[in-house]
From TrEMBL:
<feature type="transmembrane region" description="Helical">
    <location>
        <begin position="50"/>
        <end position="68"/>
    </location>
</feature>
<feature type="transmembrane region" description="Helical">
    <location>
        <begin position="95"/>
        <end position="118"/>
    </location>
</feature>
<feature type="transmembrane region" description="Helical">
    <location>
        <begin position="216"/>
        <end position="234"/>
    </location>
</feature>
<protein>
    <submittedName>
        <fullName>Transporter</fullName>
    </submittedName>
</protein>
<feature type="transmembrane region" description="Helical">
    <location>
        <begin position="20"/>
        <end position="38"/>
    </location>
</feature>
<feature type="transmembrane region" description="Helical">
    <location>
        <begin position="125"/>
        <end position="143"/>
    </location>
</feature>
<keyword id="KW-0472">Membrane</keyword>
<keyword id="KW-0812">Transmembrane</keyword>
<feature type="transmembrane region" description="Helical">
    <location>
        <begin position="184"/>
        <end position="201"/>
    </location>
</feature>
<keyword id="KW-1133">Transmembrane helix</keyword>
<feature type="transmembrane region" description="Helical">
    <location>
        <begin position="155"/>
        <end position="177"/>
    </location>
</feature>
């Protein structure tokens, strides 16, 4: 994520390249879900636990979206009021965006814990997939901060501070889920399944489609999926 921010302040990627990265990251995460997490969940035949975990995952992600959208609206209202009153612009931090990203990264860390609870192979593949997602997230965050008038050094520092939430989430996930077995593990894995599907369909691909779709951009999704499908088979 820090590398993405540094790249953005040095030479911001064009919209097509950023869209390709988002497509690729979505394909990678979807591949990890389909090839690694989903078979493990289906194998244990625990429909009630799966329904509970999946429902909690969807509810959590929808609640997160509602919360962050409200923060972003409050931030926009505050900025418009500051401009209207002629107050000096001190480049206020976009707290709505930063809180949203922080919570998203925290959940990413928890998902790493869930992945390693399912097995070392699943956790490793998920770590690689989330690394690609965080690269694109670091790019986007730094560009947003630079557009808001923040210096290059401050933009990278803010992204670096926000990225620490990944360590917090991973620590919580590893500690809480270390001894998870049986029904509890099924609930946790189903929660992660829902959260990852939400991340792919409602976040990564939604942002990726802000750029006009082309065959090459669409292809990058399937390249990411195939790459980690093959990696999962030979790892």
């Amino acid at each position: 994520m820090i590398a993405g921010a540094a790249l953005a302040v040095w030479r911001a990627p064009g919209p097509k390249l950023r869209s390709a990265i988002l497509h690729f990251a979505a394909g990678v995460i979807f591949s990890v879900v389909a090839v690694e997490l989903l078979p493990d969940i289906v194998q244990h035949h625990a429909p009630y636990e799966v329904a509970i975990g999946f429902g909690l995952g969807v509810a959590t992600m929808l609640g997160l979206r509602y919360f962050t959208q409200r923060l972003e609206k409050q931030q926009e209202t505050t900025s418009e009021t500051s401009v209207g009153t002629g107050s000096p612009s001190a480049s206020p931090l976009p707290w709505g965006l930063l809180v949203a990203i922080g919570i998203d990264i925290l959940i990413d860390g928890l998902l790493l814990g869930i992945g390693f609870a399912a097995g070392a192979k699943e956790g490793t593949l998920l770590a690689i997939a989330l690394t690609i997602e965080l690269l694109s997230l670091g790019l986007a965050t730094a560009v947003e901060l630079r557009d808001g008038g923040h210096s290059k050094g401050r933009a990278v520092a803010i992204v670096a501070g926000t990225s620490l939430m990944l360590l917090v989430g991973a620590g919580i996930g590893n500690t809480v889920l270390r001894g998870a077995t049986g029904n509890l593990l099924e609930i946790v894995l189903s929660f992660g399944l829902a959260a990852l599907l939400f991340l792919v369909t409602e976040e990564l691909l939604t942002e990726a489609h802000e750029e006009t779709e082309t065959p090459l951009l669409t292809l990058s999704f399937f390249v990411g999926f195939l790459l980690f499908l093959l990696l999962g088979m030979v790892a």
